[in-house]
Write a structure and sequence with these properties.
single chain, 125 residues, mainly alpha, two-stranded antiparallel sheet, 2 strands, 44% helix, flat
Length: 125
């Protein structure tokens, strides 16, 4: 069987395959790119809230409007696709971005008992 650390041997990495090096680093997040274009996080959240409060006719006017910003069109098209598919994924994602994730609670009960079973010399808890 091969050693699990064989892939870490000297000479098997970037020196043989320099095209694998990601010199630019990880791609920037979409929100970071919007900041560079002059958007603030609060403006993005305001845009999401405004578009999510529109009726179907207003939403259609946003995705048909050639002068709407890319942010507005992206949100409008995502909501349109969700409506067509009957999916709540886009709506859930947008609401989570604006309002944060709802608090999750778990109810755990413990009766305080520990069960030990011996089978063929092994102990299972």
């Amino acid at each position: 069987m091969a050693n699990k650390l064989d892939n870490l041997k000297k000479g098997d990495g970037f020196d043989k395959y320099p095209e694998r090096i990601n010199r630019d680093g990880r791609p920037r997040k979409y929100i970071s790119q919007l900041k560079e274009q002059g958007y603030k996080l609060s403006e993005v959240n305001d845009c999401i809230q405004a578009i999510m409060s529109m009726d179907m006719q207003e939403l259609k006017s946003v995705w048909d409007n050639p002068k709407a910003t890319v942010l507005e069109k992206t949100i409008a098209v995502a909501l349109k696709k969700s409506l067509e598919k009957g999916s709540l994924y886009s709506i859930d994602t947008l609401l989570t971005r604006v309002y944060g994730k709802p608090k999750e609670t778990a109810h755990i009960t413990n009766d305080g008992k520990i069960e030990v079973i011996f089978t063929k010399g092994k102990t299972i808890l």
